[in-house]
Amino acid sequence: MEKQRVLLAEDDFDFGSILKQYLEIHNFQVIWTKDGKEAESAFAKAEKENLPYDICVFDVMMPKQDGFTLAEKVITINPEVPFVFLTAKKLKEDRIQGLKLGADDYIIKPFEADILVLRLQNILKRTQQVARTTTVSKQSYTIGNYQFDAQNHTLSYNEILQSLTEKEALLIQYFYENKNQMLRREDILTKIWGSDDFFSGRSMDVFISRLRKYFKEDPTIAIESTRGVGLTFKINN
Q1: For 22, which of 113, 183, 209, 228 could close a Cys bridge (C-beta 3.0–4.6 Å)?
Q2: pLDDT, tens digit, 9 for 90 and up, residues 172-192
């Protein structure tokens, strides 16, 4: 069985060493970096060499570059990679900031190493199930004044081309195929994220905000929210 690659960014030597050993015992391949800048370089190098990480684990408080800033840099390189924050801080503001970045989980220290293993296994299982069961069609769509190329993950408006992540493309396709009807949040999450838990819900909110920006040039298109119930991809033309 091929080992799944984990990028671990943790500046506490003793704690990082324990986590690395424990993850390796559970069949993960772990690259351990000691600060945010080192982790950013390791992630970029792996992507360039086409040896991407399957998941990232970032401590929030690190020298040279904190975990939140690191996550923002990582997202610009590969927005699809799942990541988990580790922190000794229990501040609500920090938790919200992590979730706004699209974190798949947020673990407060101290915690047992087997908790991290289980969280990582669950996240990877979920993302792999979605990858197997959800694929983007090879069709192109005209959505209002936009052209959506589902296969090549692009959205164009007046010759301005917007590159999309795979998950953004899947979400647009799902919305368009169910346009002008309300979709329940849990159905969207199950279809695109593979889970309707709290963290997936926060991640979805981030993606919805992005899609609203992408479609803002056409006033006939709107993503309307019914609080606590669902979303409607409305096209008035």
Answers
A1: 113
A2: 999 999 999 999 999 998 888
Q: How far apart are CA 237 and CA 221, in angstroms?
A: 9
**What are 96's two structure tokens?**
């919200």
- Which residue from 14, 73, 15, 13 is spatially nearest to 39, judged by alpha carbons? 73
Q: Name the pTM for this structure.
A: 0.63
| Residues paired with 162 in a beta bridge | 155
Instruction: Kindly report the number of other CB atoms within 10 A of residue 129's CB atom.
Output: 12
For residue 101, what pLDDT band results from cuts at 50, 70 and 90?
Answer: low
Q: Give bridge partners of residue 148 from the DSSP assignment.
A: 141, 155
Q: 54 Cβ partners below 8 Å, 6+ apart?
A: 4, 5, 6, 81, 82, 124
**Model pLDDT for residues 44-56, shown as the tens digit of each residue:** 999 988 888 999 9
Q: What is the pairing mode between strands 28-33 and 4-9? A: parallel
